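User: Assemble these into one structure.

Assistant: Restating your components, then the assembled model:
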Amino acid sequence: MRRPEAEVLCPGGTTLEQDHAAESLAFEPVASAVEGLVPRVEVSDPGLLFVPIDGAIRYYGGEGAVVANLARAVRDVAGAGGRIGLAGGPFAARWAAAVAGEEPFVVDDDRQFLASLDVDVLGKEELVATFRWLGIGTLGELASLPRPAMLSRFGQAGLHAHRLASGEDRRPEPRDLPEDPSVTERFEEPLVLLEQVGFAARALSHRLMEAMKENGVAPHRVEVSARAADGTVRTRVWRSADPFTDETLTERVWWQLRAWNESAGIPGGIVQLTLAPADLSGEGRQLTLLEDVSARIEAERAVARVQALLGPDAVLEGRPQGGRDPIEQVRWHRWGDDPPAFERDPGAPWPGSTPGPSPALVPPEPQLLEVEWDGGMPSRVRMRSRWEPVLNWAGPWRKLGRWWQGEGHVDRYQMVTSAGALLCELRDEQMYVIGVYD
Amino acid sequence: MENARNVPSGHLTLEPGKVIGLVGPPGLGLTRVGLSMLAASARTGPVVYLDVRGWMNPLAAWEAGISPERLVIVRCSDRLLWPKAAAALLEGIRAVYAEVPAGVREPVVRRLAALARSRRSALLLRPLGGDLPAGVAYVRYQGREVTWEGPDAGHGRLEGRRLMLEASGKGMSGIERVIEVEDDGADVVRMVSRLAVAPAGRVAG
């Protein structure tokens, strides 16, 4: 209910501003108590935290034991009224906690549980209004729609909503950055005053987000770490369903530092502050927020239109995977679908793989190539009707087949001809082109 | 003349609303030059490779510095659908590398170039047969010659190449220039020299 409506209904009421920092301070004992039982607590907002309990279930001997211990710990520091929800993903767990009463609420099937919830829980006012206008009232109705249609009509926001409604949560998009992305500030004089702490929080958050923007990413999780003058180190992870912005990150760092500061969690003041981002998303851009959103939606719509024009199998994305030949090292999937798990471990050594740089062009099927040999060395290759001299060559790199299944070996060559460089393979005494270094 | 904006001192780059032409037979290294140009745009948004032959290898794009989640590959071998697909992409994508199938009519290419300019999208055109219509490309790079380093009669491996490009067009102030590009397989394709202005059809250096 908006304030003017509330004032009409209750003219004598008093309006209080929400004080997130004070709430964060009041919530700190709860977070600490939960952290005492299960590590890697992630605070989302003052009053709401997520705990990954996979490891704790093994440690405590079962789901029930973990939940009971957590409930007891929360009750001991905050009294009755705490709510605990347990589910396969954070989104379902958050709404399981909302419907829980005194007793923890455990969800067996995320999708089934979410199906009955109102679309309001998605929290996107405009999107939800459109869903209602279209007659979609629950997450179950939303999840039953085809995902490509959602993507085509609503872009990435629709895809995200569909994933949440289907119990899949946000797709993590971990991206490698060239260097350690964390930022640290050391203070010669320990920060004791709240104003000093606030200034440090703002400056360091800004530094981190600027570094993130340069790489076109934004974090969904940030670990705030503060070292006290007596050597005590306090660490807390904050998470957000949407990527952090400069402003939202500054707020959360400030709330956390204020909570530690006022609860005497940092004896002697702060001498070092570190922010370490995690779970990076490509949603962060160098543009302003509005430009960013509109550009992203435009790009998604353009690609969705082409997908509708050419068919879903014509619009593709690739992910790296292991393999010995260039064609094996790409795992393809349709644009808009989740990247599949790789078939071959990219971290494995893959002895006998062709050396880089990779050919820019790889034919879907090996192309037959006529080669003239001279004393065991390739001397000419036939390109259409012309014979081109081989200027130089390297190899062979041998790939052993499954000999126990009757497969022979394959020798790969790099050949530099007067018409360009080729990656070829010699199989059953016949040469094939498997890549062009264009 | 050092004032050509598309030929900065370090790298070959793309600009919003500008059309770049890459002309030459496969095997010269023009695809990698184009991919390295796309890499800078891929840092701020998705980029698209319109693949007519179905031969594009994303490994080369990743090596050129384009992150996998920012690269979309659209395969379209149909000459009639190609203009529609290219136009739809230019409506929303900031940087597009488009192979141009043989037989696409000149007015179609001109209309796409005009669309790229009006939408402020960077467009790289790589004709697979013939050349681009005159005046379409802001800068037209014609591949002239490539020299490979590394292989030696069975020993070694392909390590790097030096590519001679002839740059011309409005972005070069109407003056043809031969530039040399070095590609060592890392994520940067460097322009190593700006050779003297050369008459058309003659490789300098």
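Chain A is about 35% helix and 25% strand.
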